[in-house]
């Protein structure tokens, strides 16, 4: 049996997922990484290998049960073990609920609820046989607090939080820890690949500016280190950024207060109800002021592979099958 621990990371082609995989590699883990985009996960795998990681890069849509099962099977086939599973795959739709349709909610639940549940349910029997394991579920502050103009995302993240917290209670007796990671705003460059509806340029503007504010947001590398550290220590929960910690605690104690406050925020947001979706990179303002205000997010997008995925006109990644040979083993 391979002596090095093995981690599976979903949604690892860019942003936080890529950084979580890189941090686990730096902690001594061999990796199985996946994403829906062949172009994106190939680029991420090559970048991780250049840093010395042993990597299997897999094209998989973890909202599809067969893909999730095959992903876990790949880890066992290539490395004969599975120590850590990080469920990070996500998609963001921004706009008023009146601009959303059933497909938006279906896509969000598929990626961020079933895309958590399917890999976990495939991994738990492997971990139970070994008598140990760590599961890290990357959720969001949107899974704790009702964020306006993010309803499909928030609903799916609430479901993921409930699933992860329930797992933590039930799997402890098998030697498996479950960490619910609840990030606040992080500078990953994600607005480039988020989907926007309604007044798309205005929605993109407020979302991206909020994602760029240095005292409200967190550096994505620091967030990845904190999440991995908490997961490897078996902590039940980690909430990232002081603002997110305050928001979650206040909403837990005084939900009526936070709901009323967020109702006022909602009334200040754009009201256009156009149902057409476009990715952030297609609707971004080119004004000098906007570019200055979003400098940190644009830098993060360039650093963390947010531009490597090939997308269709609706902003969703193309899914193409690739085959990667088993990694070369140093032992």
From TrEMBL:
GO cellular component, one term: membrane
Start and end residues of each stretch annotated as Disordered: 303-331
Gene3D superfamilies: NAD(P)-binding Rossmann-like Domain
Record flagged with keyword Oxidoreductase: yes
UniProt keyword list: Oxidoreductase
Keyword DNA repair in annotation: no
GO MF term (any one): oxidoreductase activity
Pfam families to which the protein is assigned, alphabetical: adh_short
Family: Belongs to the short-chain dehydrogenases/reductases (SDR) family.
Protein name listed in UniProt: Short-subunit dehydrogenase
Organism: Kutzneria kofuensis
């Amino acid at each position: 049996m391979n002596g090095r621990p093995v981690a599976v990371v979903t949604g690892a082609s860019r942003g936080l997922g890529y950084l979580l995989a890189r941090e686990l590699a730096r902690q001594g883990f061999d990796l199985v990484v996946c994403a829906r985009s062949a172009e994106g996960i190939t680029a991420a795998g090559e970048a991780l290998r250049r840093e010395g990681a042993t990597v299997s890069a897999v094209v998989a849509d973890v909202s599809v049960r067969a893909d999730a099962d095959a992903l876990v099977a790949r880890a066992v086939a290539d490395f004969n073990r599975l120590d850590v599973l990080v469920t990070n795959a996500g998609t963001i739709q921004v706009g008023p609920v009146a601009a959303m349709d059933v497909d938006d909610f279906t896509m969000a639940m598929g990626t961020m609820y079933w895309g958590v549940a399917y890999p976990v349910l495939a991994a738990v029997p492997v971990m139970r046989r070994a008598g140990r394991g760590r599961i890290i579920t990357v959720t969001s502050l949107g899974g704790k607090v009702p964020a306006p103009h993010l309803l499909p995302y928030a609903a799916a993240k609430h479901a993921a939080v409930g699933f992860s917290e329930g797992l933590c209670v039930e799997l402890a007796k098998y030697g498996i820890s479950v960490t619910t990671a609840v990030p606040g705003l992080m500078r990953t460059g994600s607005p480039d690949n988020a989907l926007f509806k309604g007044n798309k340029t205005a929605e993109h503007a407020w979302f991206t500016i909020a994602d760029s504010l240095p005292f409200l947001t967190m550096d994505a590398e620091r967030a990845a280190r904190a999440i991995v550290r908490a997961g490897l220590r078996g902590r039940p929960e980690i909430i990232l950024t002081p603002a997110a910690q305050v928001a979650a605690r206040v909403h837990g104690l005084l939900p009526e207060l936070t709901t009323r406050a967020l109702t006022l925020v909602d009334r200040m947001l754009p009201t256009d109800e156009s149902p057409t979706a476009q990715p952030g990179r297609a609707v971004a303002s080119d004004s000098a002021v906007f570019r200055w205000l979003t400098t940190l997010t644009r830098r993060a997008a360039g650093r963390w592979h947010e531009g490597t995925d090939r997308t269709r006109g609706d902003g969703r990644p193309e899914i193409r099958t690739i085959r990667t040979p088993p990694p070369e083993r140093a032992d």
